[in-house]
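Backbones bend. Shown next:

***
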Amino acid sequence: MAMLGLVIVADLFALWQGNHSYRLLGRLLDDLGSVTAQEIDQADSLYGASGVVQFAATLATAAVFVTWFYRTRVNAEVFAPEYHTKKRAWAIWGWFVPVINLWFPRRIATDIWNASVGARGRSRAVLNGWWALWLVDLIFGRFAGQQYNRARTAGEIKGAIAGLMASDVCNIAAAALAILFVHRLTRMQHEKALLGPGL
């Protein structure tokens, strides 16, 4: 959960820098003489740095999250082996195999959730919301990144930055729901373990 919080902080930093660059480009488009080359270079450097920070935070968080995810899958198999439709190894490889990574992790997360839920039951709304936002950000963020890399004019760059900022907002929301997902699933597994075998 702390690592996901770090992702949110990195995204907020990128959002702040993106907003600064967006407004600077707006000034440039309105009046060419109102922006200096130094301002442009500084904004570009800081926005690039925010992207590096985001990448580092995401990579570190992904390593911790996938490890946690695999461990919850192992626990869930102990609780209720009959719930699992995918082999244990897919809890790791499902995140990395192209195309399959669009639905295997969610299927495995659902199996883990179902095997871990107590007698009272718990809605999967957090799981479904997190997965939907993660997919939207994955697809939209990739598209926005390609637009940014292809942008040449100030207008194109400004539009691409707007897309990247929207992706950052989506990623912040996805990370917040992921924190809730991790918290609830970990708590459910803890509660189920305390009940003992067969419950």
